[in-house]
Write a structure and sequence with these properties.
about 60 residues, mainly alpha
């Protein structure tokens, strides 16, 4: 197999992990009624941008 195949598979694994992170943050807000700080919002936005980049380039 060529190198780009392994890199694309790795990118998909990272994307799944990032989606899992977003769901866990959503669960903490909905189920446990936790409030989100500004720092966490910046992190969520960064993760979402990286997911969009992976989907757009993948």
């Amino acid at each position: 197999m060529e190198l780009w195949v392994f890199l694309s598979i790795g990118a998909l694994v990272i994307a799944v992990g990032q989606i899992e992170l977003l769901f866990s943050i959503l669960a903490s807000i909905v189920l446990f009624k936790e409030e989100i700080t500004g720092r966490e919002l910046v992190g969520i936005f960064t993760v979402m941008l990286s997911l969009i980049g992976i989907i757009a380039l993948g």
